[in-house]
Write a structure and sequence with these properties.
Keywords: Cell projection, Cilium biogenesis/degradation, Coiled coil, Cytoplasm, Cytoskeleton, Repeat, WD repeat. The protein is mainly β. Helix content is about 15%, strand content about 45%. The strands form 7 sheets. Strands 1-28-27-26 form a 4-stranded antiparallel sheet, with no helix packed on it. Strands 2-3-4-5 form a 4-stranded antiparallel sheet, with no helix packed on it. Strands 6-7-8-9 form a 4-stranded antiparallel sheet, with no helix packed on it. The longest helix has about 35 residues. The chain starts with 9 loop residues before the first strand and ends with a helix.
């Protein structure tokens, strides 16, 4: 049994400044800044320190669809319906370089863990990889047959995962540039995908109202959640790898316990669709955005020592290999456990659904 949580997640801050739906949020590494993008064509950088003024960055000519801080937090990438990607220095000047990345709306931007490269996804049906330095185009991945909504690097930077309106999730080898596997189980457009912090599995959100978790080594479907009553727009793994948070057009955020395969919390904060959600790098907080133009910051209050989470994620150089092996072996045991419990979890979920359905 999971240890009881000391408190439920709580709403800490709530930022107003966007003039249209919020589309994306991301925390900087040190938690001092939170970036958000909106249909109002602006990027906002909010300061977590109370009474600090936010920065409003203007430059995109159309809706901002995606935002991601570099691993160091010194750069901020954004993509837009204006077909460009901008790389910003997130300070008061808000200087940026711009490049035309695609021939249609850019839906997703994500830095590799070493900060050296950037992956973008677009309505032009391609995924592109760029060097961060001088934004040099490196290569394109083009097997999707509809808009690509999301693309992410694996934690070790060797794989790329992409999600598309062709209802597939594709796993790519960055070095060979080949599609390793296509996951075709979703019955609707796939809106979002991300890697588990261990790099061993992926979770995808879809307009079919479901979230699915696959093992990237065996390509087996590990978990399937049908808890929302409308499209799932975004998701984010807790850095411990034990929890997943989802944002849906049914206006709720849901926190899932991946070890138990069950719903932990349903949060009602937004009026109208919840469009985006992201954990901070320690998992102590998460942020959400919605069509209601609001950005909300929540305190997780999970029963976790956040310092310990960071130590696991960032082991000192001398212990890196043994710490990583230990972490991976623990996660492999957990994943095996998860596979064994999948049937039971699905049955539990059915019971929960029956109980929650009036």
């Amino acid at each position: 049994m999971a240890a009881p949580c000391p408190e439920d997640p709580s709403l800490e801050r709530h930022f107003k400044g966007h003039r249209d739906a919020v589309t994306c949020v991301d925390f900087s590494l040190n938690m001092k800044q939170l970036a958000s993008g909106s249909m109002d064509s602006c990027l906002m950088v909010w300061h977590m320190k109370p009474q600090s003024r936010a920065y409003r960055f203007t430059g995109h000519k159309d809706a901002v669809t995606c935002v991601n801080f570099s691993p160091s937090g010194h750069l901020l990438a954004s993509g837009s319906r204006d077909k460009t990607v901008r790389i910003w220095v997130p300070n008061v000047k808000g200087e940026s370089t711009v490049f035309r990345a695609h021939t249609a709306t850019v839906r997703s931007v994500h830095f590799c863990s070493d900060g050296q490269s950037l992956v973008t996804a677009s309505d032009d049906k391609t995924v592109k990889v760029w060097s961060t330095h001088r934004q040099k185009f490196l290569f394109s991945l083009s097997q999707h047959i509809n808009w690509v909504r999301c693309a992410k690097f694996s934690p070790d930077g060797r794989l790329i995962v992409s999600a598309s309106d062709d209802k597939t999730v594709k796993l790519w080898d960055k070095n060979s540039r080949e599609c390793v596997h296509s996951y075709c189980e979703h019955g609707g457009f796939v809106t979002y995908v991300d890697f588990h912090p261990s790099g061993t599995c992926i979770a995808a959100a879809s307009m079919d109202n479901t979230v699915k978790v696959w093992d990237v080594r065996t390509h087996r479907l590990l978990q399937h959640y049908q808890l929302h009553s409308a499209a799932v727009n975004a998701l984010s793994f807790h850095p411990s790898g034990n929890y997943l948070i989802t944002a849906s057009s049914d206006s709720t955020l849901k926190i899932l316990d991946l070890m138990e395969g069950r719903l932990l919390y349903t949060l009602h904060g937004h009026q109208g669709p919840a469009t985006t959600v992201a954990f901070s790098r320690t998992g102590e907080y998460f942020a959400s955005g919605g069509s209601d133009e609001q950005v909300m910051v929540w305190k997780s209050n999970f029963d976790v020592d956040y310092g310990e989470v960071l130590k696991v994620q960032r082991p000192p150089a001398t212990l890196a290999s043994s710490a990583e092996n230990l972490t991976v072996s623990i996660l492999e045991q957990r994943l095996t456990l998860t596979e064994d419990k999948l049937k039971q979890c699905l049955e539990n979920q059915q019971l929960i659904m029956q109980r929650t359905t009036p």
